[in-house]
User: Fold this.
Amino acid sequence: SFNGTIKSATISKTPSGRYYVSILVDTEIEELPQVDKSIGIDLGISDFLIDSEGNRIPNPKNLHIYERRLSKLQRQLSKKQEGSNNRRKMRIKVARLHEKISDTRKDFLHKLSLQIINENQVIVSEDLNVSGMVRNKNLAKAISDVSWSEFTRQLEYKAKWYGRTYTKIDRFFPSSQLCSICGYKNTDIKKLSIREWTCKHCGNHHDRDINASRNILLEGLRMMT
Assistant:
């Protein structure tokens, strides 16, 4: 349900045969009450998100879950005769599975982005070079499946809607290398295999990803002052 004036409605049909109605509504979105909480988020692949409070959100791995079934259906489709009724039915099965993967991914991203917007006044993330990262053949499929670009897009427009502040720090900021307590820079952490480390200057022990998310938050707050 919604409050507002309907401006237009567009009917579309998906490859699997489902129909959708997209409705354009002229409405005003009320800003959320302000909260005294800020968060930094480090986006990853094994864990989709690690935040500055130490929370980890596992990667749902939507494509990986259905990949074997999808490959089987695509092989079956390739064996069906062009123009046959059996090929049409198999094409619809493949399209439905693609849509299921897409719907599951979108549902996860929308729920998580809205939760973050609801709970935090200021949200900070890195400005990731996704288009460059997908050129890595070993990571391309995983990066595409995790949908970082869509997630940050949702954070951006929802922040504007609900009166929150969302900002991105420079992609070259060494968030993993800095001690979030004293600022000491440990260049050894460039090695991705190092998941935990102890600061040589202040002695604090760090989880790589949690420490990075705290530095992301600190840098975002510094940029805003």
